[in-house]
Design brief:
Blueprint: H1 10-19, E1 24-30, H2 37-51, E2 57-63, H3 70-76, E3 93-99, H4 106-119, E4 124-127, H5 137-150, E5 154-160, H6 167-181, E6 183-184, E7 193-196, H7 197-204, H8 218-228, E8 233-240, H9 253-269, H10 271-274, E9 281-282, E10 285-286, H11 301-314, H12 316-322, H13 325-335, H14 346-362, H15 367-389, H16 394-410, H17 412-419
Parallel strand pairs: 1-2, 1-4, 2-3, 5-8, 6-9, 8-10
Antiparallel strand pairs: 4-7, 5-7
Helix pairs in contact: 2-5, 4-7, 6-9, 6-16, 8-9, 9-15, 11-15, 13-14, 14-15, 14-17
Length: about 450
């Protein structure tokens, strides 16, 4: 446990004393988001006024040292409610605009938000990214209402995305999290979340805030920690998430290292939780699902294949250490095949991921080297997915992603075998002591 208080600035401490307590807290981590943060603040303000008019609410901007005036925009942005069909009965929205301390990164920004939520005894919390262009006031209700009214502890976002947007989520974060922890949370690294005050306090007590989680990987860490702690989880349909999509082959290595490193570290920490679980179950989705246009994502298939093939040549010594012999030989055979025959199948990809996780666990080589060496393999798998889905709609491509998830689940015994000789123990008790039932069932809320 980490019972020390997160350091806050003197003005923030004074502001907390002045506010005293709150029902709802919405956090916005930021760093140089002057062009979008005003829109986010207005959407949050309207959402709270429209959907939670009788609740005490606080908006917290946790800023990483922006040089473009982002905090000032948060402080001065006002909303004219005249034409928004919102009455005059809404409570005042208090604001706390503060820099965060600690290791630079989104995780440290979240730590400050969690600490303020704990000090203010918030019942329900949400965090939203400062660079969102598609956020609407309804997002605030969808992220908070399941916690306020339905006793859920964690609300993950459910977006409609282009089939080539979020390829790390589609090929790694979603299927691996689902296979390990048994819940089908479609966007475990989505960026927008709702959570109870009790879960915020639980997050603060974990020994991660001086680690890489404080810099990167906070989203997948929050989702994993909610699942293994016994929190009651759900999803809310938010429509499209509009941001600046990138070619999956561009500037990818760092992000892949962050996400995969966080996933593999969580596997070690929570080994007792996942080794005894089989299969997965659906997670309830709140909101009204509807078809929505998504921004196209253009991919450079040739570039991805080129990086993958170069990796087969340059990284052979490392891959021989990471991968099981049969896995490596299958990849090696693909090197001699024509483009049309050199696709990384679902089963081969799952074995690559599981071999890499086991190698990470056994420290077969420096972990940074291991994680970096996965980028060409990931690009080869992404190229295979693009090749297989070029003529499909995003909805049709989703069927392929679900099939991949099934393969991750089916081959989980292979992962446990490769994970040896680590001791496989019975499932650990829930870290948050409250009962859960099947999705949507009765629930004893956290206190």
């Amino acid at each position: 446990m980490n019972n020390g208080l997160t350091p806050l600035t003197a003005p923030t401490e004074a502001r907390i004393d002045e506010i005293g307590s709150t029902d709802i807290l919405v956090g916005i981590p930021s760093y140089n988001n002057a062009d979008t943060v005003g829109h986010v603040v207005r959407a949050v303000s309207v959402g709270l006024a429209k959907h939670f008019p009788g609740c005490r609410a606080v908006l917290v901007n946790s800023d990483g040292g922006s040089s473009d005036g982002t905090p000032a925009i948060v402080a001065r942005t006002v909303v004219d409610f005249q034409h928004l069909f919102i009455g005059d009965q809404q409570s005042i929205l208090h604001r706390i605009v503060t820099p965060y301390h600690g290791i630079p990164g989104k995780g440290s920004a979240f730590r400050t938000i969690f600490e303020i939520a704990r000090r203010l005894k918030a019942k329900a919390c949400a965090v939203v990214d400062a660079d969102l262009r598609s956020i609407s006031p309804e997002w605030i209700e969808l992220l908070l209402r399941p916690i306020m009214d339905e006793n859920y502890d964690y609300v993950a976002p459910y977006y409609l995305r282009h089939k080539y947007d979020g390829t790390i989520t589609n090929s790694l974060a979603y299927p691996l999290t689902r296979a390990l922890y048994g819940h089908r949370i479609r966007q475990p690294i989505g960026g927008e979340f709702g959570f109870s005050g009790a879960l915020a306090s639980h997050y603060l007590e974990q020994h991660v805030w001086e680690s890489e989680v404080a810099r990167f990987g906070i989203d997948i860490w929050m989702t994993t920690e909610a699942l293994v702690s016994g929190a009651r989880v759900c999803q809310s349909f938010l429509g499209a998430k509009i941001h600046n999509p990138k070619d999956p082959a561009a500037d990818l290595s760092d992000m892949l290292m962050q996400v995969v490193g966080a996933l593999f570290a969580a596997m070690e920490r929570h080994e007792q939780s996942w080794t005894s679980l089989e299969g997965s179950r659906p997670v309830p989705i709140f909101g009204f699902p509807y078809e929505v246009g998504v921004e196209p994502v253009h991919v450079n298939l040739e570039r991805m294949v080129s990086h993958y093939r170069q990796g087969l040549t340059d990284l052979e010594p490392i891959w021989r250490q990471i991968l099981a012999q049969d896995t490596f030989e299958q990849l090696h055979r693909l090197q001699e095949a024509s483009n049309s025959d050199s696709l990384i199948s679902d089963e081969l990809w799952v074995r690559v991921v599981y071999d890499a996780a086991a190698a990470y666990h056994k420290r077969l080589l420096p972990r940074d080297h291991l994680l970096k060496s996965l980028t060409p393999l990931y690009l080869g798998r992404t190229a295979s997915f693009v090749h297989a889905t070029q003529g499909l709609t995003s909805r049709e491509a989703e069927v392929k992603i679900e099939a991949l998830c099934g393969t991750f689940e089916r081959l989980k015994p292979y992962l446990i075998q490769q994970w040896q000789p680590a001791t496989v123990s019975p499932a650990a008790p829930a870290l948050l002591q409250h009962t859960t039932t099947d999705a949507g069932g009765d629930h004893e809320p956290l206190h």
